[in-house]
Design brief:
By secondary structure, this protein is mainly β. The protein folds into 2 domains: 8-170, no CATH class; 175-226, no CATH class. The chain has helices at residues 81-92, 155-170, 216-223, and strands at residues 8-18, 25-32, 51-53, 60-62, 66-71, 75-79, 105-108, 114-124, 127-136, 139-149, 175-178, 182-185, 193-195, 206-209, 212-215. β7 and β8 (114-124) form a beta hairpin.
Length: 242
Amino acid sequence: MLRGGPHSIIVTLREQGESSGSRRKFIELYCFRAHAVPGLPTADGVIIMQQDHCEGCGEIMASHDVVHFGSMDKGYRKLCTRCVNAEIAKLSGLEDFENIRLDPIGITDCAGESHQFHFRTRLLGDIVSLEAFELREGNPAGYRFQMVGDPEDDLFALLGRLIQKIRRTLSIRHLKEIDGHGLQIADDTVRGRIEWGESGDGRVPLLVVDGREISWEDFGSMLMSFEGWQFKLEILDPSDEV
């Protein structure tokens, strides 16, 4: 499971042998948020950069596409996601892995608002993760989605399922503006995502509902219209259907 919204990630390869019945080596993925790394830390650290060149293909990378790939013994290289996928495919014996670049697409929600989604494919050994996200000020924000599958399956089939998931989510609005009361919960169910809350120094979450950021305090105010009611809080993996 990939948690949170890292601006940069670091991939560490550790030789731990092959598991029984598997030809793939263990690959461990570390994710860091930009605010969590104040400078150049120890061996498993990462420097956050706004823009850099990939040491594999030479292309300019956005900050959210920087991956520090390698090991503590041999050091790390700054690679783009596609070059990391190529390296992992080689290590995993996946010569036929579809390491393709997907163009952004626009999808309209139930209120007529258009959202542009960018895509990122991550090969993680015996699974592949396909992510869709909006960009704000160059960083992933707003709506974010993920699907996981088998790296030997058709990537475009996985993309099709991801787009269906996006359309289902955008067909519903969980919050609505009410005159004199501001933003309120529209029905009795709210779906969203938990993010890092800067205002509470990480102790209080920031919620993303309907693609918009909602502070913990504001969400608590919305809940007060249900005073005395019961509730059920369920936490799901980003790739699960909510």
